[in-house]
Amino acid sequence: MNDYDLFTEAGSPTVAVEIILTINIGVTVGASTTSNYAIYCSTALPSGSTLKIINKGTIYGAGGAGSETSASNGTYNNGGNGGPALSLGCTTTILNATGKIFGGGGGGSSSDWVSGVNAVIYGGGGGAGSTPGAAGWVLFQGDYFNALPGTAAAGGRGVFQGIYPGSGLFTPTSGGGLGSPGLIYSSATHQRGLPGDAGRAVDRNGYTLTFASGETAAQVKGAYA
Asked: pTM for the full model?
């Protein structure tokens, strides 16, 4: 499911509560957009509440959209930021021994490259996420050339087009993987749009967060400290 509101699911408590939330093996909790969380509290839980998350599944944010580039009007958009996974509403302990918590990947950047009579423009791929990031595109001489959208596991490849021997998909402007920023073509003569930032694994919102297990780089991707 997407956009799980823990406050509502707990019955909108008005006094302190102790909640245990178990996410079973094979269960995925995602976010429908990069503005939403996979798990969040629409209202902070009453003072003194505690939450224990036993995560055996996957909690992850949405992917950012790839950048869009137009040679005709000089449009070089930024890649979209990846979405966050988890937002805390009280003191929280996470048992993540076999689980995964990932921010969404950022969208790939836009850029151009000019050398003599050759000119190439680049659009970004979508970032990885529970709701994958949309593909960016390049508009060149009246035609659109599309990058690839992200997937649940990986960023989509970027695209390039121009006055140059070759065109097509392009890895250096791809969307980011889970918990990673989008890619940037750093060797371009003119770097234009920026890649999207990585989505956060956890927004603490000032609450204490303790990982009792599973706090590894492979299991938690994105900022949370």
From this structure: 0.93
